[in-house]
Amino acid sequence: MARRNQHSREELRGLAIQAVRDLVVEHGLEKLSVRKVADRIGYTAGMLYHVFSNLDDLILNANADTLAQLLDAMTEPADRSARDQLHHMAAVYVAMAREQTALWKMVFMHQMQNAAEVPGWYLEKTAALFARVEHSMAQLAGGQSHEQIHLAARTLWGSVHGIAVLAADDKLVVAGDVNEQAMIESLLQHYLNSWAGE
Predict the structure, then answer these.
(1) Pair 51, 12: CB distance under 8 Å
(2) What is the 3-state secondary structure of the chain?
(3) Which residues touch 145 (CB under 8 Å, ≥6 apart)?
(4) CATH topology of domain 67-195
(5) How many other CB atoms are found less than 10 A from the CB of residue 157?
(6) Which residues of the chain form CATH 1.10.10.60?
(7) Does residue 114 contact residue 56 with C-beta atoms inside 8 Å?
(8) What does the alpha-carbon distance between residue 149 and residue 108 come to, in Å, rounded to a whole number?
(9) What is the pLDDT of residue 172?
(10) Could you give the percent of the chain with pLDDT greater than 90?
(11) Distance CA 94, CA 185 (A)
(12) Local confidence pLDDT in tens for the 198 residues of the chain
């Protein structure tokens, strides 16, 4: 690794974000601190505060990488049907919850300290997920208003998220040890049939 004074600001930012991801996978979000991130990459905590405003800023930047990975994996060829796209997105979402649990939880469970507002740049990234769901759902029900599509996308994805939480926490045994992908298929089949008026 390069010596400290050989890292540019952007390189330091990348090192810190990767350290956040590694530490959360190894020890969990609750044990994360700016000092631990700094120690991992051989810098002082004070130096990191020149790049990130606080621990929340560090976490949100790490989460942005996870969201980008999630959205990239969700991308389906444009010629696939809207139903196929939604099924693929849901399967990817639940798979990440199961296979990259710590990073997935950091995205969806992190709470800003001192009730601080989530910055606009990050809200835009999370909105991209719902925009993709809305786009596919709009193709299944002509004539629905923007407000109806907005609500339906969040209702459907809230249900997918609930299954993902159960899968991530290995709590599906409470539901009779049902396979999470089978639950997703059942949810989407019935919800989308209703949504499309079938």
Answers:
(1) yes
(2) CCCHHHCCHHHHHHHHHHHHHHHHHHHCHHHCCHHHHHHHHCCCHHHHCCCCCCHHHHHHHHHHHHHHHHHHHHCCCCCCCHHHHHHHHHHHHHHHHHHCHHHHHHHHHCCCHHHCCCCHHHHHHHHHHHHHHHHHHHCCCCCCCHHHHHHHHHHHHHHHHHHHHHHHCCCHHHHCCCCHHHHHHHHHHHHHHHHCCC
(3) none
(4) Tetracycline Repressor; domain 2 (1.10.357)
(5) 21
(6) 1-52
(7) no
(8) 22
(9) 75
(10) 73
(11) 12
(12) 444 557 888 999 999 999 999 999 999 999 999 999 999 999 999 999 999 999 999 999 999 999 999 999 998 777 899 999 999 999 999 999 999 999 999 998 888 888 889 999 999 998 998 899 999 999 998 788 999 999 999 999 999 999 999 988 888 766 666 788 899 999 999 999 998 876
Joined tokens for residue 77: 């060829």
CB 172, CB 166: distance < 8 Å = yes
Q: Where in the chain is the domain with CATH 1.10.357.10?
A: 67-195
pLDDT of residue 159: 96
Question: What pLDDT was estimated at residue 3?
Answer: 45
Distance between CA atoms of residues 164 and 130, nearest Å: 16
What is the C-alpha separation between 167 and 19, in angstroms, rounded? 26
- The domain made up of 1-52 has a fold known as Arc Repressor Mutant, subunit A (1.10.10)
